[in-house]
């Protein structure tokens, strides 16, 4: 990223701000308690048995600033907190710590569009667009574009229940992106298409960013991340490890996973610690009148 691009990014208005956000929840565990309870408590448990619960830290305290015009990729192993972060940004769940600020209502692919498997693809286009607040005239004007982006062609007239998972994901992306959302969240859906769909979806995401929007993309495909984003965030076990340009972040992430694949756990966790120690986190500062200023990570 050039110095001019970096300056433009830092001075742009924020679309999404994660302010020292964290997420934890309790789940039932079948693991036996290691602590031996008092005698009286053991007797009470026989009559009022309670399941053993454990606290899962899905996201540890982290701060992020996503500015207008940015396309941010989110990578990490399974269970790293990627989908949890997307749910927090979309408003599906409330954080147990900190706060999420958004300049408008985020559109999460496949969530905001209330699609019905029994209906045809074209009927679902109308239904999904109406759910996002588009008028019938706006839907008619954008229908051909939605079909083109999805790549479904004549299959658009078939029931959605006959679609493959990839076809359904492509249609959801096309519907979600047609409304020109200021904040678009995409979770894994762009991995399910051919080269033509990849080109169409990238072109659509570029158009969204040019209209002062931002895109957050979760994917296990590093090629997709490098092709479609200009910034990458690496999460691991709920921690923010690295935030920077796609080439640098994906390179470190691949080194980390390669160490793990070869059984070099000490080397992997040493690399993780070194990268995390050099992280410059976003800083949210309260100002007079309740306003906030947002300083992006370097």
From TrEMBL:
This is ABC transporter ATP-binding protein. Belongs to the ABC transporter superfamily. The keyword Isomerase does not apply. Residues 44-262 form the ABC transporter domain. GO terms for cellular component: membrane. InterPro entries: AAA+_ATPase (IPR003593), ABC_transporter-like_ATP-bd (IPR003439), ABC_transpr_TagH-like (IPR015860), Bact_Polysacc_Export_ATP-bd (IPR050683), P-loop_NTPase (IPR027417). Keywords: ATP-binding, Nucleotide-binding, Transport. One of its GO terms (molecular function) is ATP hydrolysis activity. It comes from the Bacteria. SUPFAM superfamilies: P-loop containing nucleoside triphosphate hydrolases.
């Amino acid at each position: 990223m050039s110095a001019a691009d970096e300056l433009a990014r830092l001075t742009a208005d924020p679309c999404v701000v994660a302010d020292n956000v964290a997420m934890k929840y309790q789940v039932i565990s079948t693991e036996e308690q290691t602590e031996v309870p008092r005698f009286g408590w053991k007797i009470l448990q026989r009559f009022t048995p309670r399941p053993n619960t454990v606290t899962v830290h899905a996201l540890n305290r982290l701060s992020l600033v996503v500015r207008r015009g940015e396309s941010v990729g989110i990578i990490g192993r399974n269970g790293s907190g990627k989908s949890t972060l997307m749910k927090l940004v979309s408003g599906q769940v409330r954080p147990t710590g900190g706060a999420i600020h958004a300049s408008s209502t985020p559109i999460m692919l496949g969530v905001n569009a209330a699609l019905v498997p029994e209906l045809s693809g074209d009927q679902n286009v109308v239904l999904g667009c109406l759910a996002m607040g588009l008028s019938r005239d706006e839907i008619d004007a954008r229908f051909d574009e939605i079909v083109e982006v999805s790549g479904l062609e004549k299959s658009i007239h078939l029931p959605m229940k006959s679609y493959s998972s990839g076809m359904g994901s492509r249609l959801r992306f096309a519907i979600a992106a047609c409304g020109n959302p200021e904040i678009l969240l995409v979770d894994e859906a762009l991995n399910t298409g051919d080269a033509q769909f990849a080109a169409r979806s990238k072109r659509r995401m570029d158009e969204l960013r040019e209209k002062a929007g931002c895109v957050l993309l979760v994917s296990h495909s590093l090629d997709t991340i490098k092709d479609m984003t200009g910034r990458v965030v690496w999460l691991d076990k709920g921690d923010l490890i690295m935030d920077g340009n796609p080439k640098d972040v994906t390179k470190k992430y691949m080194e980390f996973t390669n160490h793990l694949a070869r059984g070099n756990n000490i080397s992997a966790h040493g690399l993780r610690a070194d990268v995390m120690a050099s992280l410059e986190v976003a800083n949210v500062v309260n100002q007079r009148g309740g306003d906030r200023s947002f300083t992006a990570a370097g």
